[in-house]
Design a protein that fits this description.
The protein is of the alpha+beta class. It folds into five domains: 43-119 and 142-170, 2-Layer Sandwich (Heat Shock Protein 90); 200-302, PAS domain (Beta-Lactamase, 2-Layer Sandwich); 330-483, GAF domain (Beta-Lactamase, 2-Layer Sandwich), CATH 3.30.450; 501-585 and 607-670, GAF domain (Beta-Lactamase); 683-910, PPM-type phosphatase domain (Phosphatase 2c, domain 1, 4-Layer Sandwich), CATH 3.60.40. It is 31% helix and 25% strand. It has a six-stranded antiparallel sheet, with helices on one face. Strands 8-7-12-11-10-9 form a six-stranded antiparallel sheet. Strands 15-14-13-18-17-16 form a six-stranded antiparallel sheet. A hairpin with a 2-residue loop joins β25 (711-719) and β26. α16 runs antiparallel to α17 (758-770). The longest helix has 45 residues, at 455-499. Residues 1-40 are annotated as: Disordered. This is SpoIIE family protein phosphatase. Keywords: Hydrolase. Residues 201-231 form the PAS domain.
Length: 916
């Protein structure tokens, strides 16, 4: 059986690469003939997508085709293409019950669109007569008839697994300049600008770097082309972002066409709101780039694409049952899971459908008690977004969002729709969005004139709301899931950062930097030292650094929030009220001084900027740790902006982690201060000056945060002309060893000053250590008495109790031990100790160290006594301080790892006698 031919045209060959993953678009990188039997047409681009066998796929396919053709500039044939695609996709996903693949091919003289399904049964008869359209009320079966009526060429192709219906729409012949036109408007209705409209033209390469920057861009943003060419646009763009959701600037630059608002950070550091239109192009070499047209946000009318209002069933498409389906088309192109774009497009099309001046869409909370404003249009852009209103606002039919409502004149019912208060809107129609009987949202359209809407408009809007409710709820759940994943990632990263520091000031800075700008526009952290103290403003951060000082000054003039331990965020109105009053005072001052006092503008500008920055919603979250409020985390938005509930819940989770990290930092700081104070008491406050002898000490305690360990040293006067010195090592490190260190150092001073000689001092110290019982530690100790002599030498009497032997360096470079080893302390009760006398001649050095120096290891190698002696031989002629420094440097260089044992170095030198 051969393939049937309808309308006198043979079937066209289907491109082999038409089967593409769902919702994937890609440019065509090959050229070929669409139909070389009828007309030579070069394919210049393509877009393809697949749609699941679901009813809502019909609307999504129409949106896909509409956006594709509009992006290609083929607006003249969009309506016919959408109608034909709607019918063919409906046949596939509804009647045949299979997935549908849609392929759009751009030719030099028109567009070819192919719709394929997985139902290859051949039911198309060969007909020579014109195809009858039949009854317009019958269900289905009109797709091929519409192709015959609207398409210039079309056909059907069968394979064992697919059936493909294709059609081609030719571009009409038209002179230049008649592609699109708008109505003639009176001058008062034209967009108002405050000067010459400047359109910044910026070209971005494949990697996101700026390659072109025109004069208007330089005028708008303050950067010259030389300053920005080659830099990523992401360095300049201030992109609105919610954790886990939204399209970033990098993604937007990859789209074939994109329109919307964001900000550009100007050369002065402030963010300039802009409205942008992005168009992705490809040069003759095949290299893709993006052309961005940007204007100031209030001049968006220059770039904004006019919205289309369907007027007929042909414009709107049809549903699977053959009836008109107006709402699914005017919802437009966003993918079902792109909630923000879907909601914004919804309110814009709803406003146009009822010829309103404003529209809004609110989403219900999970418990259906409140509605959150998510997408307003025609209203102050950000003033009510994410604000919440109760579902049951009052008694009766018109006080509940669960029922459709029409208000002829809001002036007769003030407060009936709080969202519209002060906007000038008089009449409004609102309808609920419901899924399986559950309230999921509310859609409303308002007009400035009274009496604009009746029950008929309410029914139309309700029908539209019913058709979009499921898509909105599906997109909301998808956004919520992405937000939760993003929130978990955010909290994991925040926990890692907070756990990585125990410094209080750094913890405060991290808290603020993690919230701005991800969760809030500005942040302030109050801390409470103790229960009797008032909250203290410790840290302020704003995404615009120039506003930080102004916010800090404003907050310092108002009482801090009450330290209430109740969990969750609570609204704090004081900053907004103070900002409003400051703005009023500044404005009044400006008016009273008149135009001749322009010099005050330098002070008025920052004041108004600060007021605008703090004038939005402000919330306070308590920082509670160990059942005590230790501070408050304050988050704020700019003028009349609100927080969304998911952000507040994320901020609450962050505040709990931050509170514990802040309290840990406080406890660590307190304990560190106490520990360091106690440790410093174990070391001598300073070294006494000894006439005729140079003395220097270097001390290193092992372990982070330790100032003293098991090693210690001391040098103190005993009596006139006599000084005691000691260097010791308690077994082990840390606080337990430091306790024995304190006992040894203070006992040595006391016993020596009582007149005991060296052996007697150490014997009594040994008894004191043994009296400690289980807390006692072994102790090696080098103790001696130093007496400078009149001839310039120095006499030392030393006892070396189990300690590394002191080394004597003579002027000729020879090194020798200066004492003999004797038993260590803390082991035996009865010790037989004796002292030895050493005389240091002028130029001689006595070096005393602990075993942390001699036992310094690198793998199997150890510095040892011989290695220390070798280093000391190089120190001839050096001062005592230089000798100690050279020994420490050699020890540190001997191994790469940090020292694992305490180290102490005591160097004493008798200077040479200067000759006249």
């Amino acid at each position: 059986m051969t393939t049937g031919v309808i309308g006198g045209q043979p079937p066209e060959p289907r491109p082999t690469d038409a089967q593409l993953p769902e919702q994937r678009r890609e440019p065509l990188d090959r050229h070929g003939d669409v139909d070389n039997r009828t007309r030579s047409s070069v394919i210049t681009a393509r877009a393809a997508a697949s749609f699941e066998p679901l009813g809502r796929s019909v609307a999504t396919a129409r949106s896909f085709v509409r956006d594709t053709l509009q992006g290609w500039g083929f607006g003249d044939i969009v309506d016919d293409a959408v109608v034909l695609t709607s019918e063919l996709v409906t046949n596939a996903v509804v009647h045949a019950g299979t997935a549908a693949d849609v392929l759009c091919l751009r030719c030099d003289d028109g567009v070819r669109i192919e719709v394929s399904d997985r139902y290859p049964e051949r039911e198309v008869p060969v007909q020579s007569a014109p195809v009858s359209m039949g009854s317009p009320d019958r269900e289905g079966g009109r797709g091929l008839q519409l192709c015959a009526a609207l398409a210039g060429r079309w056909g059907v192709e069968y394979t064992p697994t697919h059936k493909t219906v294709w059609f081609q729409l030719d571009l009409p012949e038209r002179p230049v300049g008649t592609r699109a036109a708008g109505p003639v408007l009176p001058a008062e209705l034209l967009p108002l600008t405050d000067g010459r409209v400047r359109v910044a033209v910026v070209q971005i390469d494949r990697g996101g770097a700026v390659t072109a920057w025109n004069e208007d861009a330089e005028e708008l943003f303050g950067y010259t082309a030389d300053q920005v060419v080659g830099k990523p646009l992401t360095d300049l763009a201030a992109w609105p972002h919610t954790p886990g959701t939204g399209t970033g600037i990098a993604e937007a630059l990859q789209l074939s066409r994109w329109e919307g608002s964001y900000g550009i950070r100007g050369a002065h550091g402030r963010v300039i709101p802009v409205y942008a239109s992005h168009l992705r192009v490809r040069d003759t070499g095949g290299e893709p780039s993006t052309v961005c047209l940007l204007v100031r946000d209030h001049e968006r009318a220059v770039l904004q694409t006019p919205l289309r209002t369907p007027a007929t069933a042909a414009d709107a498409g049809s549903s699977s049952d053959g009836t008109a389906d107006p709402f699914e088309v005017f919802i437009g192109s966003p993918a079902p899971d792109d909630l923000d774009s879907l909601l914004q497009r919804t309110v814009e099309r709803a406003r146009d459908m009822l010829d309103g001046d404003a529209a809004f869409l609110l989403l219900a909370t999970d418990d259906e008690t409140e509605l959150e404003v998510r997408a307003p249009t025609g209203l102050p852009s950000a003033r009510q977004r994410f604000a919440r209103v109760p579902v049951e606002a009052g008694p009766g039919r018109y006080g509940s969002a669960r029922m459709p409502a029409v208000h002829d004149d809001l002036t007769a019912a003030p407060g009936a729709v709080p969202l519209l208060s002060g906007t000038g809107m008089r009449s409004v129609v609102t309808v609920p969005l419901k899924v399986e009987g559950r309230l999921t949202g509310s859609l409303g359209v308002a007009a400035e004139a009274p009496g604009r809407y009746s029950n008929e408009e309410a029914l139309r809007l309700q029908f539209a709301a019913d058709r979009i409710a499921l898509a909105v709820e599906s997109a909301r759940l998808g956004e919520l899931e992405r937000l939760r994943r993003g929130s978990l990632s955010f909290l994991v990263e925040a926990s890692d950062l907070l756990a990585g520091t125990l410094d209080r000031d750094q913890t405060l800075a991290l808290m603020a930097q993690m919230t701005v700008p991800t969760l809030a526009t500005w942040c302030a952290v109050y801390t409470i030292a103790d229960q009797a103290s008032e909250p203290y403003l410790s840290y302020v951060l704003h995404e615009d650094e120039e506003l930080i000082d102004g916010i800090k000054s404003l907050l310092s003039k108002i009482p801090p929030p009450d330290p209430v331990p109740t969990p969750g965020a609570r609204v704090w109105s004081a900053p907004g009220e103070a900002a409003h009053q400051a703005a009023l005072r500044t404005s009044m001052r400006s008016l009273s001084l008149g135009d001749s006092h322009h010099r005050i503008g330098t002070s008025i500008g920052p004041t108004l900027a600060t007021a605008a920055a703090v004038g939005g919603e402000t919330v306070v979250l308590p920082l509670v740790a160990r059942n005590r409020v230790i501070g408050m985390l304050t988050l704020g938005k700019p003028t009349e902006e609100h927080f969304r509930q998911e952000i507040l819940e994320l901020a609450e989770d962050l505040s709990r982690r931050a509170a514990l990290a802040l309290d840990n930092a406080r406890l660590y700081s307190e304990r560190t201060a106490i520990s360091q104070s106690l440790q410093r008491s174990l070391l001598p406050p300073g070294l006494p000056h000894i006439d005729g002898v140079e003395v220097d000490v270097i001390y290193r305690a092992a372990g982070e945060g330790n100032e003293v360990g098991g090693d210690f040293y001391d040098l103190f006067p005993i009596r006139d002309g006599a000084y005691g010195f000691a260097i010791g090592d308690v077994c082990g490190t840390g606080p337990e060893a430091a306790a024995v260190t304190g006992l040894a150092r203070h006992a040595l001073r006391l016993l020596a000053r009582e007149g005991y000689d060296g052996p007697a001092v150490l014997q009594r110290l040994n008894s004191a250590i043994l009296d400690e019982g289980a807390r006692s530690r072994f102790l090696t100790l080098l103790y001696g008495e130093l007496r400078p002599q009149e001839d310039g030498s120095a006499e030392l009497k030393v006892v070396c109790a189990g300690h590394p032997l002191p080394l004597r360096l003579r002027q000729d470079g020879t090194v020798e031990p200066a004492a003999e080893p004797q038993p260590l302390l803390g082991v035996m009760e009865d010790l037989e100790l004796y002292e030895q006398t050493v005389v240091l001649d002028p130029g001689d050095v006595l070096l005393c160290v602990t075993d942390g120096v001699t036992e310094r290891r690198e793998g199997t190698r150890m510095l040892g006594d011989d290695g220390l002696a070798d280093v000391l031989t190089t120190c001839t002629g050096l001062t005592a301080g230089a000798v100690a420094a050279r020994i420490m440097r050699a020890v540190e260089r001997f191994a790469q790892d940090a020292p694992s044992d305490d180290m102490a170095i005591l160097a004493m030198r008798v200077p040479e006698i200067l000759k006249d």
